Amino acid sequence: MDGRQVPVGKLEAGGRDYAGRLQHTAVALGASLLGGAVTFLYFRYIDVGSSGPRPGAGELIFSGVAFALLGAIGLFLSGRWLRPLLRHRWDVASPIDERVRQRALLLPYAIALVTFIGWTMAGIVWGVLWPLMAGTFTVEKALRSLFGTTVIAGVLATAFVFLAIEHQWRRALPRYFPSGNLSSVPGVPRLGVRARLLGVFLLVGALPVSLLGLIAYTRITAMLGASPDEAARLIHNLIVLVLFVAVVGLAMSAVLSLHVARSVAEPLREVERAMDGVAGGDLDQRALVVSTDEIGAVAEGFNRMVQGLREREQIKETFGRYVSREIRDEILAGRVALGGQTLDVTILFSDLRDFTPWVEATPAADVVEALNSYFSDMEAAIRSHHGLVLQFIGDEIEAVFGAPVATHDHPTMAVRAALEMRRRLAAWNERRRAAGQPIFRHGIGIHSGAVLAGNIGSPERLSYSLVGDPVNLASRIQSLNKEFGSDLLVSGTTRKRLAADVDLMALPAVRVKGKSTEVEVWRVP
């Protein structure tokens, strides 16, 4: 070793890829052994006329060399296909190349194609090449050998390899498609569930029938001109072969059907699992997409649906930062008209005192931090009493109670929210005093009345706003705190609608700007 360390992630990814390649090789080897057994049984018991006498030493040597050569060609072709997948570096945060993703999806098809090519070459080698070398070549024997080796054994081995590799490779596909968008990769065939089931049906239905027909043909041909004893032996042999093909056909049907059922059921169970999680309120659920068929499309659609639900929930939670949860739920449920309506509401205005001189002498970052802290406390007080903060204007707050969701006790809610704002301001000032920072006072004005409420603004930007004389009067009452040296004033209109447990102190009626008559105000001690 040269002392250099390989990243752990690369070791793990490389180890998984290497193990996956070994598994693919093991599947291909198992399919070859299965196909070899099928070929042996076929030529030993079914098509006995196409195989010659017992193989000699030359044929055994030829078969060994040919088998090794075909295996080497298969490994070379599959290795060439797997090379981009094995070379991808998982230890670096880089996007996966489109060519790599395409090959990841085509891997089962590629390995199955290499397998079928190998069995086609095997049919040519043992059905054509060796008979030519041995001087026993006939067209009939060559065609029968090609049928038994390539069509019978080759098709079975290819189907087994495809289904087994597909099942095995589905565990690795999510690494190449973390977002699950398999359908976005071009140039990948879509083997639907219907085509998959039809293919297996033909294998387990048509193939045994063709074998039974071939057996019947060869045995009937052999019985022509045979003695009664030989004919009886052939009939007995025919019965045994029919039972043998039936048993083997059932076993083959069970294996292939199991693979097909698993290829359909497992992705559906994955979608079902994710659906159960979403039904339980977990919107972080995600179904693994492991195929490009209809089930894969269902899984992708489910993930898009959950993503939409997550975005909707995020919008809902974000909206909940601006209004109380009750108001938010009413608006999202469509029970609140935002196009404009006349509502009876209570308006609250709050303004910090002596804040502007402090702003002029303080760094901007400290001003923003102080305002954010103050607004957070004040808004929490307003929201806890079902109020809605309409806007922050400089160091001023405009809030409404009784809109957009109408309530009958909004004047009391507004006063109780103002009392909590007073308590929160005292706590906020204590924290600032402990930190050696200046403290502040604020003034709050409250008034009730009918206003026009709705979304107002341009087509590009709207805000929920109130229009009407009560809004202006609430702002004027807030300004009266400077004149009376108070911090919380309510109008006479609001005072008449308050609950009995709210203590008030009468103040002299005053004339405010924009009003021809004096306004009755009350102080909340």
Please characterize this protein's 3D structure:
This protein has helices spanning 8-46, 57-87, 98-134, 139-169, 173-176, 193-223, 228-279, 294-319, 325-332, 355-360, 364-384, 410-434, 469-484, 492-495, and strands at residues 341-352, 387-393, 396-401, 442-457, 462-467, 488-491, 505-506, 521-523. It is of the alpha+beta class and 525 residues long. Among the domains are: 1-176, no CATH class; 339-523, 2-Layer Sandwich (Alpha-Beta Plaits), CATH 3.30.70. Strands 1, 2, 3, 4, 5, 6, 7 and 8 form an eight-stranded mixed beta sheet that branches. Helix 6 packs antiparallel against helix 7. The protein starts with 7 loop residues before the first helix and ends with a strand. Residues 1-19 have low confidence and may be disordered.
Present the secondary structure layout.
Blueprint (H helix, E strand, L loop, with lengths): L7 H39 L10 H31 L10 H37 L4 H31 L3 H4 L16 H31 L4 H52 L14 H26 L5 H8 L8 E12 L2 H6 L3 H21 L2 E7 L2 E6 L8 H25 L7 E16 L4 E6 L1 H16 L3 E4 H4 L9 E2 L14 E3 L2
Parallel strand pairs: 4-6
Antiparallel strand pairs: 1-3, 1-4, 2-3, 4-5, 6-8, 7-8
Helix pairs in contact: 1-2, 1-4, 2-3, 3-4, 4-7, 6-7, 7-8, 11-12
Which short descriptors sum up this protein?
525 residues; 8-stranded mixed β-sheet; 63% helix; disordered N terminus
- CATH homology superfamily name of the domain at 339-523: Nucleotide cyclase, GGDEF domain
What are the low-pLDDT stretches, counting only 5+ consecutive residues below 50? 1-19
Span from first to last CA? 82 Å
Please count the beta strands (DSSP E, at least 2 residues each). 8
**pLDDT averaged residue by residue:** 81
Global outline: rod-shaped
Number of helices: 14
Tell me about the biggest sheet? 8 strands, mixed
Binned, the helix content reads 55-70%
Q: What does the radius of gyration come to?
A: 42 Å
CATH topology of the domain at 339-523: Alpha-Beta Plaits
How much of the sequence is in beta strands? 5-15%
* CATH top-level class of the domain at 339-523: Alpha Beta
The sequence of SSEs as H and E is HHHHHHHHHEHHEEHEEHEHEE
Q: Helix/strand-derived class?
A: alpha+beta
CATH architecture of the domain at 339-523: 2-Layer Sandwich
